[in-house]
Design a protein that fits this description.
Length: about 525
């Protein structure tokens, strides 16, 4: 290696539209920023090309890099688009329908046709076995090993390449799940197996089973992806540590990411939360709101006293994008943030009553906004910003990409004509619709937490964040906006500020009738 072994570190984040890269020089504390359009057919393609271009910009090689930190939307996309494994579930006799029943709560009590996300496991692939453990962990009915064997063979015969095992009250006593997993792995060593007592050892049968199923669902996909990425990096001379960003704002090894891929559900946005805390601290502002607007979505995160709040649960694959309770509940620690609106690639259209709307559909990176010149023809937020003069068409991506202003005007014209507006007026309308909707969502989030937006500064970042942050802040009543250097790849920068960490949770039922049993708590902590 031509440099000091620990001098160079890289953070890279694969987003829906762009893949962002940050190279950090530990000797001079200098940052090098790079971006590439994401390749949806194979996200690793853009990542590997971008990494080679990034190190070439500093005249070094991948062999000089001591650590890479990676964030990806692969897990999120697989669950939303249902592109994971063919999954089977083995559960306690009488509980195969927990994924359908849920908690029997309605997120909208007045909607007679309320919809919920389809379970990740179809009913014919949810098999029951005889076993029973009570809420205290005592065995009521021993596990039937023969039933586990039959279930595993039936699921494999049905084409399953991943199996989730979730038994009643396994958080209190995991012995049956461990034994069942041992049987399945002995029969089918290549099969991906997830057990609830390892994925999320908490009370709440529905959330625990959903989370375990989701982990198993993406395990084969993430395993193949990480194996391919790691091998490709090694073939290019990289000999350092490859780590993954998890949703709670820490780093895990490749091995841990393979075992618990569900922990990576919000890995990219988590980096943005850490970057917000970092930028706020550098600016002397311990209380800040992040405004992270990329090519596909915009998210907000609240930082108080220099720290992001960690939530114990998140939702994935919502039936209604902004409606809490309409998604799959994933019990996994996550930096608390909310999706507040559209991204730069979100498409503008006229709805059925003749009003202008933006999103939820996105042009993504392929074909992308019309101004990219890659075949897109529908008007997007990026096209509107270009028409308004917010972007320099000759200096996009640092001058490496030229935007087509005429194509953007033609695209915006498709909504301007029916609305009886000029192209500039329609572009401003698109911009204002996005701003107002994002400001309203962010304001509601803060007010629900009992916070006044006027007491916070806003940190704007992401590829489209700086073009909207000031107007969003103005609508919210925020008086100070911080646009940091390298704002276009802030999430990737946040990766480099993350510690190695892994969150473990265990539920413990304690009665306070005779005082607090500290011995039981300490014994669990020792475990």
């Amino acid at each position: 290696m031509s440099e000091a072994p620990s001098r160079w570190r890289i953070g890279f984040d694969i987003g829906g539209t762009f893949t962002d890269f940050i190279l950090y020089d530990g000797q001079s504390a200098a940052l090098t920023l790079h971006k590439r359009l994401t390749t949806p057919h194979d996200p690793s393609e853009a990542a590997l090309k971008g990494l080679e271009e990034l190190v070439a910009m500093r005249g070094i090689s991948l062999g000089d890099i001591c650590e890479m930190v990676h964030g990806t939307t692969l897990v999120t996309n697989a669950i939303i688009e249902r592109k994971g494994a063919r999954l089977g579930l083995i559960t306690t006799e009488g509980f195969r329908d927990i994924l359908e029943m849920g908690t029997e709560q309605r997120y909208d009590i007045y909607d007679l046709f309320i919809g919920f996300p389809e379970p990740l496991v179809s009913r014919d692939l949810r098999l029951e076995v005889m076993e029973r453990v009570d809420a205290d962990g005592a065995v009521v009915t021993p596990l039937n090993p023969a039933a586990v064997e039959r279930a595993a063979k039936a699921l494999v015969a049905a084409g399953c390449d991943a199996i989730a095992i979730s038994f009643l009250h396994a958080y209190a006593n995991p012995a049956h799940e461990i034994a069942a997993a041992k049987i399945v792995r002995a029969l089918f060593p290549a099969l991906s197996v997830s057990i609830s007592s390892e994925v999320v050892a908490e009370m709440g049968e529905y959330q625990r089973t959903v989370t375990t199923a989701a982990n198993a669902y993406v395990q084969p996909l993430m395993g193949r992806y990480l194996e391919k990425m790691d091998a490709a990096l090694r073939a290019r001379g990289f000999a350092g540590q490859l780590r993954l960003m998890h949703s709670a704002g820490g780093l895990v090894s490749v091995e841990t990411a393979r075992a618990f891929p569900i922990r990576l559900l919000e890995s990219g946005p988590a980096g943005g939360g850490l970057a917000t805390a970092l930028f706020g601290a550098l600016a002397g502002k311990p209380d800040v709101i992040s405004f992270d607007m990329g090519g596909t979505t915009a998210k907000a995160c609240m930082i108080e006293n220099g720290r992001a709040e960690i939530a114990p649960l998140m939702e994935a694959a919502r039936v209604h994008r902004f409606t809490k309770g309409s998604g799959l509940p994933i019990k996994s620690p996550v930096i608390e943030m909310i999706e507040i609106g559209a991204g730069g690639g979100s498409i503008a259209a006229i709805d059925e009553v003749g009003l202008l709307k933006v999103g939820p559909h996105s042009a993504g990176s392929d074909p992308g906004p019309a101004c990219y010149g890659m075949g897109g023809a529908k008007p997007t937020v990026t096209d509107a910003n270009l028409v308004l003069g917010y972007y320099d068409p000759t200096f996009f991506l640092g001058g490496r990409m030229t935007l087509d202003l005429d194509a953007a005007r033609r695209a915006v014209g498709t909504v301007a004509g029916p609305l009886g507006m000029s192209i500039e007026q329609a572009a401003l309308g698109i911009h204002k619709v996005v701003v107002e909707s994002m400001a309203a969502a962010a304001r509601v989030h803060l007010v629900e937490k009992g916070n006044d937006p006027r007491h916070y500064a806003m940190v704007g970042f992401g590829g489209a964040g700086p073009a909207h942050a000031a107007n969003v802040a103005r609508v919210m009543g925020v008086t100070e906006v911080i646009i940091p250097p390298a704002s276009g790849a802030a999430s990737a920068l946040g990766f480099l500020a993350a510690p190695l960490s892994f969150d473990g949770v265990r539920s413990l039922r304690i009665e306070f009738r005779d005082g607090f049993d500290s011995d039981a708590v300490n014994a669990l902590l020792d475990e």
